[in-house]
Write a structure and sequence with these properties.
Layout (H helix, E strand, L loop, with lengths): L3 E7 L6 E4 L2 E4 L8 E4 L6 E10 L4 E9 L22
Antiparallel strand pairs: 1-3, 1-5, 2-4, 5-6
Length: about 90
């Protein structure tokens, strides 16, 4: 048995999912922890596949699912109180 190079990435080019590490070398009987992050920018369901390519091995696809909740509006400022001051129309 020899070490194998691997690459992992979401199937969709413009996916809301990302993965780290994206590539590496894995030894026989070794495991690698992958961190999958979902950057949900809408209140909806998201689906994709995580593709793993292993050199001289098989390609594995794992389904990814996430649901955006709440609101798609994101503001860095505190907007709990908004004062427009005097406004005339």
């Amino acid at each position: 048995m020899i070490p194998a190079e691997f690459r992992v990435f979401p199937k969709s080019k413009h996916s809301v999912f990302s993965v780290e590490p994206r590539e590496g070398l894995i030894s026989p009987h070794e495991s690698v922890v992958l961190t999958v992050t979902a950057n949900l920018d809408e209140v909806m369901r998201f689906k994709d596949y995580l593709t793993a390519l292993i050199t001289d091995g098989e390609t594995v696809q794992t389904p990814l699912h996430a649901v955006g909740l709440g609101t798609a509006i994101d503001c860095e400022e505190d907007i709990s109180v908004i004062d427009f001051g005097r406004a005339f129309s």
